[in-house]
Amino acid sequence: MSRDANLTCVPILAAVCIGLALVGSPPSAQSQTADPKGSWTLKAPLSAGRNEVAGVAFNHKFYVLGGSFAGEKYDVAINEEYDPTTDRWRILAPMPSGLNHLGAAVLNGKIYVAGGFTGNQHRNPDDSVFAYDIGTDAWQRLPPLSSRRGSVSVVTLAGKIHAVGGRPNQTDPVATHQIYDPATGKWNDAAPLPKARDHMAMVTVAGKLHAIGGRFGANEDNTGLHDIYDPATNTWASVPPMPTPRSGGAGVLYKDFVVVLGGEADKDTYNQNEAYDLKTGKWLTLKPIPTGLHGFGAAVIGDQLYVATGAKGRGGRDVTNELLVFSLR
Questions:
Q1: CA-CA distance, 11 to 1, in Å (whole number)?
Q2: Residue 279, exposed/middle/buried by CB under 10 A (0-12, 13-18, 19+)?
Q3: d(Cα 38, Cα 287) in Å, to the nearest integer?
Q4: Is residue 105 part of a domain?
């Protein structure tokens, strides 16, 4: 596959969730529409393929942290930065300790990392919280989460860090919602998720949190639930669910859409690229990822959406070091 080539997929019928979210629906390989919008290009690959990473953007750079090398090492501490202007990656100071299924968010020039696992198949949960100062290329350890858990969704809202959901093991997700205030250095509890789940996509939009998809426990127990948290009232409210229930993908705010990409189920991966239109409150289908993918990092820089590394197969099968870029013009 050459770089900057326009990648296409043949659309076939996809599962659609109407009304309440379907649970355990089998993955559908492609798009729901005959002519989905957008295009994909391929850029410079990472130094090595990793799975179950975290990805964030800051100051026009893309950072991919942690993860696992399938079948080899499950506590990878790599911190890699991509510069779109040069199409090059560079290795920065590694995390104090390696983690997979970690959550990450950016606030005031620092990358905050919380939770994760140090073993495979959701083993050895961790409560670690780290902050990386991008300007000084240095890490510091912060007060831990209230419990050891991975697959935590971590986002920034109103100058604070929110860590939501997750799981301590293979089968028991939590509804826990904690808020870290950098000014006080303390974690406080907030309203829990309406239903415990993990492997969610979580995005901050206009002062509220959107928690989308995830799983209730077993790998096949996926959901399309879409809940919005309002910090002014400390409450959650449900809105139209994501059409394709899935977990293990990533979500970003891109243009006027909350975009959720990829994911996995019990036997396969998803290449779905679905967008919640913030103007209409409806979901639509965008150009699917060229292949099913999960456990990757995603972030938006300018008018492009970056997707890095992850596994094309279920679990840690067929890990890739590719960097894909989605554009919607």
A1: 20
A2: exposed
A3: 5
A4: yes
pTM of the model: 0.89
CATH number of the domain encompassing residue 69: 2.120.10.80
Distance (Å, whole) CA 45 – CA 289? 16
Within 10 angstroms of residue 60's Cβ, the number of other Cβ atoms is 10
Domain-located, residue 16 = no
Could you identify the residue written with the tokens 């109407």? 18
pLDDT in tens, 189-201: 999 999 999 999 9
CA nearest 103: which of 217, 29, 198?
Answer: 198
DSSP state of 220: T
Helix (H, G, I), strand (E, B) or coil at 214: coil
Query: Using CA atoms, how far apart are residues 131 and 110, in angstroms rounded to an integer?
Result: 6
The domain total for the chain is 1
The DSSP line for 1-52 is --TT--B-----------SSPPSSPPP--S-SSSS-B-EEEEEPPPSS--BS
The model's pLDDT over 42-51, given as tens digits with 9 standing for 90+, comes to 999 999 999 9
User: Is 28 contained in some domain?
Assistant: no
Task: With respect to residue 14, please indicate whether it lies within any of the assigned structural domains.
Answer: no
Domain that holds residue 317: 39-327
User: CB under 8 Å to 86, separation ≥6 — which residues?
Assistant: none
From the list 285, 281, 256, the residue with the least C-alpha distance to 270 is 285
